[in-house]
Amino acid sequence: MACVGILAPGLVGGAVGAVCTRAVSSRLTPSTVRHLTLSSTMKSNRKTDHLERTASVVRREVVAAAKVCGAASESPLVKSLRLLIADKDFSFKAGQWIDFFIPGVSVVGGFSICSSPRLLEKERMIELAVKYANHPPALWIHNECALDAEVAVRVGGEFFFDPQPTDPPRNLVLIAGGVGINPLLSILKYSADLHREWANKRSGCEIGTIKLFYSAKNTSELLFKENILDLVNEFPEKIACSLHVTKQTTQISAELRPYITEGRITEEQIKDHISNETLFYICGPPPMTDFFSKQLENNHVPREHICFEKWW
Ligand SMILES: *[C@@H]1O[C@H](CO)[C@@H](O)[C@H](O)[C@H]1NC(C)=O
Ligand SMILES: *[C@@H]1O[C@H](CO)[C@@H](O)[C@H](O)[C@H]1NC(C)=O
Asked: GO CC annotations (predicted)?
């Protein structure tokens, strides 16, 4: 399952998993590497290239033209882009990433999509949130990318949530660190879309409950917190979140204070959600991802219920 967000040269990714909803037994193979953010820890150039790192990961064949039709600053370090993709052959599953081809830039980026597949179906749009990194695709997005710029994209990755109408509803626990929120936000938004459709028409997929644990350095790096809290407020019986900050140096604003915990996501919190029927999706820096996936395995969660992707 590949997940991830921002790419950069050192991104590595992760792991692979399985199509969780089908309960296919999958092995976590260390092949998917993705970049999310740039890392100061790149020690060698080997393996730093997104294409090389993800060479064995499943990709779609379609390379689609995409046009930048919106950009915004999500935090001091993260810029979001909206891309218009007219090509109807382009589609993706919640949690997947794209190869990002920029004219005139020889390095290919790899970024997780953070929007719902429904936004693409309805408006032909996808959204990305890319952290600043000293890597050509991230630099281009931060410094050069302008409205109407044209790029090309191709979908890939094995970290996704794609329930089928015949599947029983499954509870999800999403665990995000930093920009690892990107693919999990896509899964969260898509689940909310499915639930709206189910509530309105009793058709499509019935979803279980979703609990998001999301940790970032401080409240400005907790991306999309308003979107997340809006979904929690819209579906209080289905969606819950626990937002964490680990290095907050300023006072947390009064509006946010009730939703934020200072300190890491703990083992105990996750343990409270373990059941046979729950699927776990984890995307964050490698030590965090390793920690929680190991902890879940130690608590007898079947491997095929643990989907993760690493980045750095
Ligand atoms: C969070 O950290 C970033 C980077 O160090 C800093 O620019 C920003 O001001 C901090 N925000 C808050 C709310 O402390
Ligand atoms: C959950 O797993 C336990 C232990 O493997 C098993 O005894 C139990 O029947 C399972 N429950 C369901 C609902 O599958």
From this structure: mitochondrion
